Amino acid sequence: MATSPHRITDAPEPYNSPKSDIILRSSDGVDFRFFKLLLSLASPFFSGMFDLPVAKDPAWEASSSEMEMKDGMVVVAVDENSQVLTALLGFVHPWKVPTFETLESSRVILQAADKYGMDDVTEAVEEALITSKFLDRRPSAVYALACTYKLEKAARAAAKLTLQHPMLFPFSPEVDHAPAAALYRLFAYRQACMKKVVEVTHILALRDAYVACKACPTATTLLSSVSVYQWLWDSVHHLTSRIQEVGFGGDVMQHVTVSWPVLANAMQCPTCKTKAMEIFSRFVQEVKRDIELEIRKVALEIKF
Length: 304
Ligand SMILES: [Zn+2]
Known about the structure:
alpha/beta; Potassium Channel Kv1.1, Chain A; two-stranded antiparallel ribbon; binds zinc ion
């Protein structure tokens, strides 16, 4: 608990209710009028504090003599600043819609919730994270945050979405705080998923392995020892290289353009002219579905 050198001000609604019975003073000197019952239900830390037998406990008696009172209420000074306290109490107050504006603010709420043992707040923040814009926009940061505060559901949802980004995802303060083992497991998961992408695309390309053109060169695959159109094999390699480089965004079409130069060559061949587009179109339609199916089978190891 901290003491504050700041000029004391009062928090705005809903933290100024005349029916309140406790005041939480933030580290920057803002008094939040709140309710012991709500804090006790949300936090074993506060529950224990309010349950202390005032008259019988010498420690409490000693400290209570130094404890500040205001409007007949005990003032409890906390370490969190008013911004954090506003966000944290938003998850405890029954009439507030819990929310956070930035990922950083969700992190400080989780940190405070962990400190005060507010499990329901932690659970509510996890649900809010899963439906937030941050999951799509900054999945690696959400994964790191989820692993730091042991939020398995959010970690799994975020890990899958990191596949939409390059292997070396953007650095963030959340990544800085995450356990190294959790980041290692994410890399292992992403590597396994990318391996599946390559396997799926090769299997689909080999499905059209009959070569009925004497003009176009053929490729012989090392694994299956069958011949396949060189232009098809090359276009598949262009596509998988692109996905491995920038991530698999769930929409293969955005990466298909990398195969156009190879396909354009095939279109010059009188025999392959119509066949090339037909085979490649079928490949593109099926590859997205097959990649999605295979990635679902890849296990992400999570240990807290
Ligand atoms: Zn040909």
